[in-house]
Amino acid sequence: MGKGEVQIVSVVAAGPQSHTKFSMEDIHSCMESAALNRFDWALVKSFLAVLDAGSLTAAAARTGAQQPTLSRHVAELEAQLGAPLFERTGRGVAPTAAALAIAGAARQMEEGALALARGVAQAKSAARGTVRITTSQVAATWLLPRVLVALQRRHPQIEIELVASDALTNLLRREADIAVRMVRPAQASLIARKLGELEIVAAASRAYLAKAPPLREPADLKAHRLIGFDRDDAILRGFARLGVPLARSDFAFRTDDQVAYTRLVAEGAGVGFVAGYAIGQWPGVVRVLPGLAIPPLPCWLAVHREIRANPLVRAAYDFLASEIAPALRA
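^ that's the sequence the OP posted. Answer follows.
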């Protein structure tokens, strides 16, 4: 055998053994030619498995692959390179010069494939998850459902949890990711964005108004059945500021449950004071006393500074910010 030449025996591919002499220049030439082809990663993976295990049998046991599959893959890679990669030994196979020459590049491919797999897994994890949104019972019932349906259509990878509660859920303790509230959060670690003004209006059903006394000015309210709150004195304080003092006994129906309150208005129990955006969703309910200047409530969207860096929360936050404002005006 001449200087600079190696004897290579192909033992992986089926068929009789072949002894071929290659110069190192020939091997590198083959490799450069093969590099121009599009390698199948499965072939390189099988090659490394056999290289590390020292035999087809051991490689199959380590990887869980079938031995004929490993053999076929190595044979295909040998065909692409134009050079055998292993020699048969008493205990298994030994790498040829060609195998050793491509081993480094093959391991780089392996590292790249593993990094790619990790990246894909992380991307899937980051691109899919749950966003927990909290708001009042009224907003959860009449304001957000349509907006949240549109949010999930735009971002189907986001799973939405809606917390309908009038209690101020603590974003600092991560009880929710995003809050839609009618009061501005005071904590410095929260990001708050004002979305608009929530109009509060007097409303009643047409069926109730058809049988009720005239209702032309605020003073006429004394002659009507009014729907108020039970323990919450917000309506009483509001009317006192408007110069229309009312007592608790002036309200024929009283409840602090906001959903029950709106249903009483819709069913004709009397005159109530509700969010303007909701009236259009109650057939037969109309606004009354348009000149009654009830102060509006500000609507705020809040999120924790740290959580906003989460791409899912950020996507939900930005969508809510753009869609709630027009919904308030509706």
